[in-house]
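Late entry, evening session. Most of the bench is empty. Finally got around to the prediction I had been postponing all week. Sequence below, unchanged from the version circulated by S.P.
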Amino acid sequence: MSPSAEVRPPSVRVSVVVPVFNPGPSFDDLIASLERQSLDASQFEVLLCDDGSDAPTQQRLEQVARAHPNVRVLALPHSGWPGTPRNEGVAAARGDYVQFVDQDDYLFDTALEKLVEYADAHASDVVVGREVGIGRPLPSRIFRKDIPDAKLGEDPLLEMLTPHKLFRTAFLRENGIRFPDGRVRLEDHLYVMQAYFAARTISILASVPCYAWVKHPGSASSSRIDPESYFPHLEAVLDIVEENTETGRMRDRLLRHWLRGKILKRLSGKRMLRYPAEYRTRLLDVVTPLVETRFGPGVDAGLAFPQRIRVALLRAGRRDDLVRFAEFEAGLKARVAVTSAEWSRGGGLHLAIKTAVTQGGREALVFDDETGRLSSLPLESLDELPPAVLVAGRELRNDRIEVFLEGEKPGTERRIVNEKLRDGGTVRVAIDPLKVFGGEGAPSALRLTAKVRRAGWTFAVPVTADAGALARAGASPLLAGSAVTITAADGGAVEVRRSGSGRLRDLAGKSVRRMRQLARG
């Protein structure tokens, strides 16, 4: 056969790099998800980067490799942290792109195909595929829409700094982007921020679920940090930001992410109260000077209202009041309740939903009519704080409620309300059963949940109701299709349930609707 007639094997589009160390049973879920990929197995490879696992694990990995021609095992000396195995995976990668996956997580079935297509279409150096939290909450703003050319400091890229992304392999090598070797906290932040600053195009693929980030008991993210060793690693991330930005709003906006998420979050509500007194003292001894030296007033100014109070107390050295403020936050309760439910003749379910934030059965967030200051705080002396700290102007203007319908499967939530909270806190919700229960594989039950933003605090809660308020809705009409009921489950949580397949009733409901529309026309 002449060289021109040779049949070349398809190129490897993506290398899936998995750092491995003595994985548990969930590793089988990862392998199964790779077997289900819609991208042909000849177009991707899997590099199992074994960080010195025990003999049974080594045998297990070799069995996986023997059963899958596109799987390779890299046997590595034990380093004790995933950074070095990931680096070795990138060095050995044959793919145009690298996708990092952790051994306890998995990929959705079309992930690799869609990620590669998206990267090709937009010449992306980095693609942030939609992550879905399994047993853990994840930020949602970053995945509200596809952004082919996301801008650092403008788009919500910092919300997701995990390494679970697609990177162009040549881009990583040309820019010398590596994970730190050895046990380094926040190594993912160091890596991703290097990539973000070096990238010409960063893309967000929000419309397709790509990565399942699974929460397991005892995972590193659930353990308490050691303040003295953790925060020097945070400063290394801050150094990268400062090296790549000028003094001003852009730098303040980026630095604010770590002040908010890595320091102030640790001083909030129930989390702060769980600390033993000795640990709390150690933590505050470390973070107080760090806040003074690394974060200026421009960083503070862009914080949300609760965080502005917290950082002001921290800067003022008012440690007892920091604890009192944490107690106040821990006692805040949001209740989102259905107060009325009725069916329209057109087949829609109409709900009135009321929101309240209370503490001890009373309204918790009380603002002075004249000054606009929060007056319900149980602190020693409010007058000693800068007056502007207790004013929640922009936050009150942004009070909002989102209502969702959620099935049992992860990633199936549908937002049905996204409105500002008005005086009284009541919103109207309309649900069309033919739409929410339509389509192949539609769930038979959907629960209502809500996310409430009030004065800068955010609450994620189930929508509840008294059984009596729902009973008055009665039976669903013909134009709703299959018989649908709205009920209060255990604890009062509201569910909308469909009885049986009801295909004939769905067809009848749709037909009558079309006839009515034609008649109106």
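Two things to note before I forget:
The longest strand covers residues 202-214.
The mean pLDDT is 90.
Will write this up properly tomorrow.
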